[in-house]
Amino acid sequence: MGQPTTTASAWPDDPAPRPGSAAWEHPTALAVDSAPVPEYGSGSLADLLPTLAAAQGVPGCEHRIAELAPADRNCVFLIDGLGWEQIKAHPDEAPYLTSLLAGSRGGTGRPLTAGFPATTATSLASVGTGLPPGAHGLAGYTVRDPATGELMNQLRWRPWTPPHVWQPYPTVFQLADAAGVHTAQVSSPAFQDTPLTKIALSGGTFHGRLSGDERMDLAAEQLAAGDRALVYTYYSELDGSGHRHGIDSDSWRGQLMCVDRLVQRLAEQLPPRSALYVTADHGMVDIPFDEQSRIDFDEDWELRAGVALLGGEGRARHVYAVPGAQADVLACWREVLGEQFWVASREEAIAAGWFGPAIDERVHGRIGDVVAAAHDDVVITASVNEPHESAMAGMHGSMTPAEQLVPLLEVRS
């Protein structure tokens, strides 16, 4: 898989709290080392595909998630925005997904941690490469390109940057395809040629289908196409509904009902010797539309002081200081944001393992001089420079359980 070059914290021996610990439920302080660091190495999104591929005999992959049993044919269905806590809170809208949870009619489902930040571009790169953000380098929604000094949007890939320079590691799909495993991605045709797909999800063949039903049927066909198979399929509409209307909306609940039906449709078509894994890239929280919950960077002179660029997104900000102002910006952000955010310097965030146990040298300068991760139901918007993002009802990115915990639900044939 390739190894990053600059070490940070020595996971898993670092002292940061893990899911299920008191720091997840009742943090008593917002010191940097109180943030619940993702379970890189044994229970994060980056660990799923290497575990599945290792059992299929793919060189360069290792078994990381201990309880996953081998299968000749593996399918990963990633549902954008489907957090673990959201499934648990909506059993009536998602009866089939609920049946797959641990303790529910024999279900064994458990949560994984998405990785930091809990955002689509970062998580999809973690899934596809099997590497944490500090290695693959997609360390946020937008980050500074050290070569140009500009903000790089890693979801929309603007401004244009050579994809395989930005993320040079092979994907697990490429390794599996080279090892003779039948490998395929089934998704919207719109994603076939995007830079994010090329550097995170490519390998084998891509099959574009518009409807969710078509994707489920074709994913099942692709699973049956080889004695060993690794298939990935994706559904984005739940996330879009959450952003527009919030996860407390009828629109979002309707999309969850659709997702539940799609998962069952695919599960009922699994060929022999197959395992289906349902997961997600992040969860989501609804943010009230009031001044206390939405802090507008573009209108806040204290937060703007000494800041050259504001990156990331509302709940996971990369803050790039004017040269020489790093310490002042860090002190100011800690003072203004109080107990609402975990606020760290770049060095503190790296040492605490927020982006993984190691940081590639090429990634170091992409991380903000200051990194701010929301603890409360609050965001830092930018109404002038980010009008679309600032108007969203549902948001994500930080390390709270609602955003960070994603499902790992299993169906076997």
Please work out how many helical segments DSSP would assign. Answer: 18
CATH homolog superfamily of the largest domain: Alkaline Phosphatase, subunit A
What would you call the structural class? alpha/beta
The main sheet orders its strands as 3-19-9-2-8-6-7
Quickly name the level 1 CATH class of the largest domain.
Alpha Beta
Unreliable spans: 1-29
Query: How many distinct beta strands?
Result: 19
**CATH architectural grouping of the largest domain:** 3-Layer(aba) Sandwich
Mean pLDDT, as a whole number? 93
> What is the domain tally?
2
Tell me the fraction of residues in β-strands, as a range. Answer: 15-25%
- Indicate the percent of residues in helices: 25-40%
Assembly classification: single chain
How far do the termini sit from each other? 29 Å
Overall radius of gyration: 20 Å
CATH fold annotation of the largest domain: Alkaline Phosphatase, subunit A
Biggest sheet statistics? 7 strands, mixed
Global geometry? globular
List keywords for this structure.
Alkaline Phosphatase, subunit A, 2 domains, alpha/beta, 413 residues, seven-stranded mixed beta sheet, 31% helix, Gyrase A, domain 2, four-stranded antiparallel beta sheet
Short description:
The protein is an alpha/beta fold and 413 residues long.
